[in-house]
């Protein structure tokens, strides 16, 4: 591992991304507190005069009024009556991200998309000589090509972790350059919560070892942190913090799934059952696109007073018939606990235990390889046709797009949707 003497990493985080895209697109929202909610029904009060659900993001004006990103809508409205609630538009945010990243690439190549609103870049020699100008060039490009409403904060430092920390030090529209020769400098006044990769469990372990602040952590030994963490990640964190060039571990894809909170009028069991098929079909499509098969399916349904969970092993499959068949089996099993008249407010379906498409083991218990292969051909054909038509032209069974207009395209902060997720 190399101790980095220069600024090699740039971390960029758009400020209040969803809300600022809304403000960029709709001038009536500019300069006003805006909250983004999950669906259209949650923008208005219900029959009791209460705003249902929670905001998933809010604008800088809303933050200045004391609101936070994730917050009950009713509480937000009480604290800030001028707050305007708008329903999320995942496809718009994705297109905005594409446009913004295109502009940034005119200034500097993008190394990684970390989430819908965060990216990292590798800083070249020119950028190392004059990091301020590089950061300003990015900001100017966005302002001139896209608009003034969408701003970003930029952090620059020796490695990705330090540039991410720097990025969060000055928001919104900030620029923080944390030069390796200034370390530890501003790090010492941070709290453990500000450091990516230090969770509540880690904090407890640090405290128990007498490491109660950043100064103590800075003075600790890498082996000590490794021991406290119980794995090599502790040591990696120590080196990253001290300005070493710590390479990111290749992350192994663990699951494909969707979980969704349902609008109040779509919580009846038959509706949720139909909707869960759409969610799972979309997850299976993404799984196939990335070249995996699943050996397990998880199922969760949250009712008002309890959460029902179940799972099923699958014989390393990727086609819709096998996967949807397993889902229906799970619903049948649920019938002993979930009544047809129950209300389900959140549903989750997740494909787990993934294997590379190439390495399907013949499952001796199933003897179904020739049938399976025919279903796989059919599924591939369906995927191709849907891609060609740019929407779901063909599906196995009904496709009741109700809550489903956003079924596969919900924007999460960690997964960047592709255009195909929206049909
Ligand atoms: Mg952001």
From TrEMBL:
List GO molecular-function terms, semicolon-separated: damaged DNA binding; DNA-directed DNA polymerase activity
Question: Record's GO cellular component, any one?
Answer: cytosol
What stretches pass through the bilayer? none
Enzyme Commission identifier(s): 2.7.7.7
Gene3D superfamilies found in the cross-reference section: 3.30.70.270, 3.40.1170.60, 5' to 3' exonuclease, C-terminal subdomain
Q: List, for all copies, the residue spans of the domain called UmuC.
A: 9-199
Q: Which domain of life is it from?
A: Bacteria
GO biological process entries: DNA repair; error-prone translesion synthesis; SOS response
- Write down the chemical reaction(s) this protein catalyses: DNA(n) + a 2'-deoxyribonucleoside 5'-triphosphate = DNA(n+1) + diphosphate
The enzyme's first-digit EC class, named in words, is transferase
Q: Which family does it belong to?
A: Belongs to the DNA polymerase type-Y family.
Q: How does it assemble?
A: Monomer.
| Functional summary from the UniProt entry | Poorly processive, error-prone DNA polymerase involved in untargeted mutagenesis. Copies undamaged DNA at stalled replication forks, which arise in vivo from mismatched or misaligned primer ends. These misaligned primers can be extended by PolIV. Exhibits no 3'-5' exonuclease (proofreading) activity. May be involved in translesional synthesis, in conjunction with the beta clamp from PolIII.
Q: What is this protein called?
A: DNA-directed DNA polymerase
Q: What is the lineage of its organism?
A: Bacteria, Pseudomonadati, Pseudomonadota, Alphaproteobacteria, Maricaulales
